[in-house]
């Protein structure tokens, strides 16, 4: 099956459009999480979404993506609040707080999921698809919502780019300038929660963090400028969404979410190897060239001394 045959299916076109926007927005907001050394934050918020989804199903008793995403958003906000409490009012560092919240929320989610699956109507809930994602279950309204939230995320990051830049590189200087650092910190977390919520149905709670961080790490190899890095991160995320969806559609019985993550990983390795300044190959070549120049200079000096 070629690409034209894939695009001939209207449902596939919509899913492809949704994963493109998801990858683009995840790459953009993930850049700031990566620069602020909060790579684990996306993973924590993604895993924290699972108990929210389960509680939403228990309270409503119906399989509704809207209710599931509302539950995931609320759980993400609670996780952000608890992380803030742990880091501000105890001696626990942020990485430890993230690890505690991640494991406790995900453990609670697995317990609730097991209870639901053992109930009379649990087999029909389909909640297990949120672990690794299932784009096949997405309907038109899901794609519309994914596109709308992605647009809002990209627009917000563009609007607050200068503030996010200061917060990412020098929060002390930003505070000295009078910027509401605490509010901006929470605001970025809220944006990450939004990205996680729209992505869990396609990629799943287990793998969503990779789509937030991997494109940003890939982009970092190519540039030293933040605005270019953010753009490249969005492009890498978009390409990951496209390639993962196309491969999944071309080959039967292959899950889209894991393939999107694997595609992002491929782009990372290509960047790590072939980036012009920071890539492994270019660094190795510069070392070899410098060594050759050094050896040549030494030989010239020996020749001049002997003469």
Characterize the structure shown.
- The chain is mostly helical and 307 residues long.
- The model has no long low-confidence stretch (mean pLDDT 84).
- The protein has a single domain (3-275), classed as ABC transporter involved in vitamin B12 uptake, BtuC.
- It has 14 helices and no strands.
- It has helices spanning 3-7, 10-35, 39-60, 65-88, 94-117, 129-132, 140-159, 161-169, 171-176, 181-199, 208-220, 226-250, 256-274, 280-306.
- Helix 2 (10-35) packs parallel to helix 7 (140-159), helix 2 packs across helix 11 and helix 11 (208-220) crosses helix 12.
Architecture blueprint of SSEs:
Blueprint: H1 3-7, H2 10-35, H3 39-60, H4 65-88, H5 94-117, H6 129-132, H7 140-159, H8 161-169, H9 171-176, H10 181-199, H11 208-220, H12 226-250, H13 256-274, H14 280-306
Helix pairs in contact: 2-7, 2-10, 2-11, 2-12, 3-4, 3-5, 3-10, 3-11, 4-5, 4-10, 7-10, 11-12, 11-13, 12-13
Brief account:
With 307 residues, this protein is an all-alpha fold.
User: How many distinct helices?
Assistant: 14
Here the CATH topology equals ABC transporter involved in vitamin B12 uptake, BtuC
Give the terminus-to-terminus CA distance. 72 Å
| Main sheet record | none
The succession of helices and strands, N to C, reads HHHHHHHHHHHHHH
Shape, please? globular
Task: List low-confidence stretches.
Answer: none
Q: Give the fraction of residues assigned to helices.
A: over 70%
CATH superfamily: ABC transporter involved in vitamin B12 uptake, BtuC
Compute the average pLDDT.
Answer: 84
| Text of the CATH class | Mainly Alpha
Derived from helix and strand composition plus strand pairing, the structural class reads mainly alpha
């Amino acid at each position: 099956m070629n690409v034209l045959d894939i695009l001939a299916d209207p449902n596939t076109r919509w899913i492809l459009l949704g994963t493109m926007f998801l990858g683009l927005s995840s790459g953009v907001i993930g850049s700031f999480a990566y620069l602020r050394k909060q790579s684990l934050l996306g993973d924590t918020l993604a895993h924290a979404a699972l108990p929210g989804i389960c509680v939403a199903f228990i309270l409503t008793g119906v399989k509704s993506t809207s209710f599931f995403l509302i539950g995931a958003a609320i759980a993400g906000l609670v996780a952000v609040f608890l992380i803030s409490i742990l880091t501000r009012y105890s001696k626990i560092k942020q990485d430890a707080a993230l690890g505690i919240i991640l494991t406790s929320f995900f453990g609670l989610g697995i317990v609730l999921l097991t209870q639901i699956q053992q109930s009379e109507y649990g087999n029909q809930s389909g909640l297990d698809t949120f672990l690794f994602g299932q784009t096949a279950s997405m309907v038109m309204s899901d794609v519309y919502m994914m596109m709308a939230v992605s647009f809002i995320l990209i627009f917000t990051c563009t609007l607050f780019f200068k503030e996010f830049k200061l917060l990412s590189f020098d929060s002390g200087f930003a505070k000295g300038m009078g910027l509401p650092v605490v509010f901006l910190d929470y605001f970025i977390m809220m944006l990450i929660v939004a990205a996680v919520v729209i992505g869990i149905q396609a990629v799943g709670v287990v793998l969503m963090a990779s789509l937030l961080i991997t494109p940003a790490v890939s982009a970092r190899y190519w540039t030293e400028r933040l605005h270019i890095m953010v753009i490249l991160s969005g492009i890498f995320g978009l390409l990951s969404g496209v390639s993962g969806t196309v491969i999944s559609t071309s080959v039967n019985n292959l899950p889209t979410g894991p393939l999107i993550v694997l595609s992002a990983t491929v782009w990372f390795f290509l960047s790590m190897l072939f980036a012009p300044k920071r890539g492994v190959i270019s660094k190795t070549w510069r070392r070899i060239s410098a060594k050759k120049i050094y050896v040549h200079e030494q030989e010239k000096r020996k020749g001049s001394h002997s003469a």
